[in-house]
Structures are given as structure tokens and as C-alpha cells.
Amino acid sequence: MRIDTLSPAEGSKKAVKRLGRGIGSGTGKTSGKGHKGQWARSGGGVRPGFEGGQMPLARRIPKRGFHNKWAKCYLIVNLAQLANVPAGTVVDYDYVVENNLVKFVKNNYGLKVLGTGELKNAITVKAAKFSETAKAAIEKAGGTAEVL
């Protein structure tokens, strides 16, 4: 095998379309650009989304809502989801994720416990945030609420 005998695989190389090489080539004279107009000019054409001066679709459709990119997103757990946890268990972020008590959210700031539902077992809950009702309900059941 010599370097001068090597060639690319069959069909892997495509010949460049040679424009403006006579009318017999099929791409001569106007070189496939038609006659005059914006698209035939050097650097011609319009930006994406331009609709010829008509109000573009992106501006015709109403805009609603706001996305705060600095908002802190927590994994939310209600006391109703912790009702079946055995007494004496330490419930933390890892416990909640392993037992699929909530849907996992990427880029979250930890666990937040809310007070919806009743808690009867004395458990220790370690979380980044607690609502006042959740903290009161955990302590009423004989458990502890630790803020991390």
C-alpha cells in the first residue's frame, strides 16, 4: 500500500457544485440565483424570522409570565408523604430521594417540608427549610425538625 494509491470510500466525497461556468452547465449565467432581487445580491437575504416588514410571528403572539433565573428551587415534601415513615427514622434529602417520596428536580437547593397532612410518628426531619405549620406538626408528634 502506498499513499498515492489511497482514495476515499465510494460515495463519501461529493463534488463541489461549480457555478457560473456557462449556460450548458445548468448553473451558468445567474448561477442558480434567479433574476435580480434581494436573494441575487452579494450578501443578500433576510435574517431568520423576518417576514418582509409584516409584524413577525414572534411579536404577534402575546407574551406571558416571568422566569426568575435566581429563584431557589427546593424539593417539596408534605407531611402527608411522611405519614407512613416508621417512628425513629431520620428523614433527610437522601432518604426522600431514595424512597421516591418526591419527583427529583435537578439543580435544587435541598429539601423543603410543608405542613399539608397529619403526622403521627415521632421522626427526625433534616431539611433546608420548614413551613411554620410543618415544624409545629413534627414537634407535636414528638419528633424534631432540624434546619440544615
In short:
The protein is an alpha/beta fold and 148 residues long. The chain is built from four helices and six strands; from the N terminus they run H-E-H-E-H-E-E-E-H-E. 16% of the residues lie in helices and 14% in strands.
Figure out the total of helices: 4
- Percentage of residues in helical conformation: 10-25%
Reported for the largest beta sheet, the result is: 3 strands, parallel
β-strand number: 6
Order of helices and strands: HEHEHEEEHE
Mean pLDDT: 90
Characterise the protein shown here.
With 148 residues, this protein is an alpha/beta fold. Helix content is 16%, strand content 14%. The protein contains four helices and six strands, in the order H-E-H-E-H-E-E-E-H-E. It has helices at residues 57-60, 79-82, 93-98, 132-140; strands spanning 75-78, 90-91, 111-114, 124-127, 129-130, 144-147. The strands form two sheets. The chain has a three-stranded parallel beta sheet with strand order 1-3-5.
